[in-house]
Amino acid sequence: MATSAEYAAFVCEQIAPYGQVRSRKMFGEYMVYLEDKPVLLVCDNTVYVKKLPQVSDLLLTAPCGFPYEGAKEHYILDIENRELLDQLMPTLKASVSLPKKKK
Question: Model-level pTM?
Fold first, then answer.
């Protein structure tokens, strides 16, 4: 089941207060960018965060799952938890680097 465009837009609305947001559709799923940094995966209408050391304390009790077959395990994010987003999004923005430019 692919992610709906409406759900991807909802996720973008939720993190819009933290900076410039955009999403990109890839294989029926979405990558969400904050300040051009890839911070969230949205697969099957579920939001995933890469397991980074910088966010492990914040997401210690979050459930985990695999966004797609062959992927590494990610945290599953409750995108409606504003208190968590207030801590998580600035941390992700500071921790994730910009994608490298293709030659």
Answer: 0.91
